[in-house]
Design a protein that fits this description.
The complex is a heterodimer of chains A (about 350) and B (about 70). Chain A has about 350 residues and is an all-alpha fold. Chain A contains 14 helices and two strands, in the order E-E-H-H-H-H-H-H-H-H-H-H-H-H-H-H. In chain A, strands 1-2 form a two-stranded antiparallel sheet. Chain B is of the alpha+beta class and about 70 residues long. Chain B has a single domain (about 5-65), classed as Ribosomal Protein L9, domain 1. Chain B has two helices and five strands. Chain B has a three-stranded antiparallel β-sheet with strand order 1-2-5, with no helix packed on it. In chain B, strand 3 (about 20-25) and strand 4 (about 30-35) form a beta hairpin. Chain B is globular. Classes of the chains: A mainly alpha (about 350), B alpha+beta (about 70). Chains A and B meet through helix 4, helix 8, helix 12 and helix 13 of A and strand 5 and helix 1 of B.
């Protein structure tokens, strides 16, 4: 049998390092060393350790590319009832946590039953809400050094290697008009029929040009718990029909908050003399996401609300998840790269 | 005969054009976009004219935030 690949000559990912009892037990199970079948999985280490976050990320990844060093590449694990039950438990905890966070954040609401133009205006206003977090893009634009930029790219790569994929889980569950609008946006994300222009491929070229590992899931061992959680949230919203409106709200908020930060990232990369393919990735997103944000808010969300009246609060929930998860990630990433910078400076002195 | 070109004007935002488009700017330079949908700048603030880059938000917002965004 030939070596399985994720595509474009990239080898399949391998299982990451465990971060606590739950992820350790799960990884050992996926490798075929022990089994969780008929056993109660161990309690995860506290949130923030990455144990629970990694376990759920692993379970979602079974539905993406699996793992080269799992039994049968993980294909036999994908629909195992005990692993789905574990995933369900972790998902309920994740959703509960973020329902509470969104409620506590008290972000602007979307009006129910409003005219399309008023809904669009309210959606853009919601995305302007101050989450209190510092912007990673602004940090890259003004302050970051080369190594800090590289570390931000490693953290961002957890998402960009599967850009748009989680939102596509919603496609078969959408009303026809909304389906058409999602595909319009997705066509751009997936290269408009040109595989080389696929955004995940543009990203991989940028990473290679920066001397960073471009393989799928190459940087998971170093991924901050907040980054894994942000990724898990996208999978959670995408994979549950009940959460379709939230997934659409998330996608639209993601697009609305992308073009202007991408411009800042481009400025920062130009300041640091970053390799052109990486700058090109963000330059492409300045233009692409300026289109996508309009399509996502006016067509995608607009058509869904027309088809499913009363879905506005769940759309707002998804948008809020996007904004607050990005705020949490930004805070964690900036704290991480600044701390590493201080550590490095200390070592230089020593 | 082909279908007429569909153009959508977005409130406080760009003009969306469906299908391939060529924009000739003030200097006579031609810019081609082969995206399924293209956002053409209407506010004049884009750093990538003639295409929209989301800069209209800073203009529309007003106040200190707009000035800060506008200064970068």
């Amino acid at each position: 049998m030939s070596t399985p690949q994720t595509g474009n000559g990239q080898s399949m990912p391998t299982l990451p390092r465990a971060r606590g009892p739950l992820s350790a037990a799960l990884i050992a199970d996926l490798r075929g060393e022990t089994t969780l079948v008929d056993r109660t999985p161990p309690e995860p280490a506290p949130l923030g350790s990455g144990d629970e976050e990694l376990a759920l990320w692993l379970l979602y990844e079974l539905h993406h590319h699996g793992f080269d060093d799992a039994v049968d590449g993980g294909t036999e694990h994908e629909w195992r009832p005990d692993l789905l039950a574990l995933r369900g438990d972790l998902e309920r905890r994740l959703e509960q946590r973020w329902r509470e966070r969104v409620a506590a954040a008290d972000l602007p609401e979307l009006p129910v039953g409003a005219e399309p133009a008023d809904l669009a205006r309210a959606f853009f206003a919601l995305c302007e809400a101050d989450t209190g977090a510092e912007s990673v893009a602004r940090f890259l634009q003004r302050e970051a050094d080369e190594e800090q930029l590289a570390e931000v790219l490693r953290q961002r790569s957890i998402y960009h290697v599967k850009e748009q994929d989680a939102a596509m889980w919603t496609l078969p569950r959408l009303p026809d008009t909304t389906k058409a609008h999602l595909v319009t946006i997705a066509a751009d994300e997936y290269g408009n029929g040109r595989p080389d222009d696929l955004h995940a491929q543009l990203w991989a070229r940028g990473m290679r040009a920066c001397g960073l590992d471009a393989a799928y899931a190459a940087h998971v061992d170093g991924a901050l718990p907040a980054v894994l959680e942000q990724n898990n949230l996208m999978s959670l919203l995408g994979l549950h029909r009940r959460l379709v409106p939230a997934a659409l709200g998330h996608l639209a908020a993601f697009e609305v908050t992308s073009a202007v930060p991408s411009r800042r990232v481009v400025r920062g990369m130009e300041r640091l003399g970053a390799p052109e393919p990486m700058v090109a990735y963000y330059r492409e997103h300045m233009v692409a996401d300026a289109v996508h944000e309009q399509l996502a808010v006016r067509d995608l969300v607009g058509s869904y609300v027309a088809e499913v009246p009363g879905s506005e609060p769940e759309i707002a929930f998804g948008a809020a998840v996007c904004l607050l998860a990005e705020a949490a990630t930004a805070t964690a990433v900036l704290e991480h790269v600044r701390r590493d910078d201080e550590t490095a400076a200390g070592e230089d002195v020593a | 005969m082909s279908e007429p070109t569909q153009v959508t004007l977005c409130e406080d935002g760009p003009m969306l054009v469906r299908g391939e488009v060529v924009v000739e700017d003030e200097d006579g330079q031609r810019h081609v976009s082969s995206r399924p949908v293209t956002a053409v700048c209407r506010c004049g603030a884009s750093s990538l004219k003639p295409w929209c880059d989301g800069s209209h938000k800073a203009r529309a917002a007003g106040g200190p935030r707009a000035r800060r965004l506008g200064s970068v």
